[in-house]
Amino acid sequence: MFAFALLSTSQAVPEGNYEVIDVHDGGAISGTVKWAGEPVKPPSLPITKDSEVCDPEGTKNRDMERLIVGSGGGVENTVVYLVDVTRGKAMDLPETRRILDQKSCRYIPHVALVAADAEYKLKSSDPILHTVHMMGAADFNLPFPFQNQFISRTLHKPGVIDLKCNAGHIWMNGIVLVVRHPYYAVTDEHGEFQLTDVPPGEYQIAAWHESWKVAREEQTLDVGSQKMTKRLFFGEPVIMQKKVEVKGSAKVTVNFQLSAP
User: Fold this and answer.
1) Is 0.85 topped by the overall pTM?
2) Domains of the chain with CATH codes
3) 130: closest CA among 98, 97, 105?
4) Which among 57, 89, 208, 261 has most CB atoms closer than 10 A?
């Protein structure tokens, strides 16, 4: 059984300097994040606005995507990264994690990875008004009144950014991690991840998962409808760490287990 700690979100994104080098005989780290223990009902909120766009399947409620466990137990949207790595390959974060779409009143992807001092591109595929309110390492409130028009912002400060919509779609939420080095990955629908071209050496590897536990609820006024709505506020994320040794041109496997505190 592993040990985990409830730590601050800032620890997911160390701010130390990073030097790009030619990586020779780099290794690879792969593995999974799996759910252990009893299932947990993920938080959801009622779809109370623009149901023709936001609720095409008529579900009436929207899972906030804070905890997604696949049929094989893999936990999606967990961020796995090397802690305090100072030297390695150049930035190669996947483009799909650096572009946000607002589609059917969801932020896609739910977890984004953006290099510090790089552009984050955002658009909306929905024919309704959305906003992206960023809070944390960056603070913007960007309206999207038109479909398929990109807005870009350069994100300078490493850290965690929470996303929400201020246009009445209170269930919309997402996370952006602004990072200094490329050794970050987000688990897929099977809970799998991979880090490549890792210089040989010993490292601490961490798995970071946003909280799914509701810390408090607040009634807030929706500016558009002038009605009171419920917003959920979540507790601290879970961070798990392990030691790993990477040898030249070799592959190593590291697995994590996540469970309710």
Assistant:
1) yes
2) 5-258 (2.60.40.420)
3) 105
4) 208
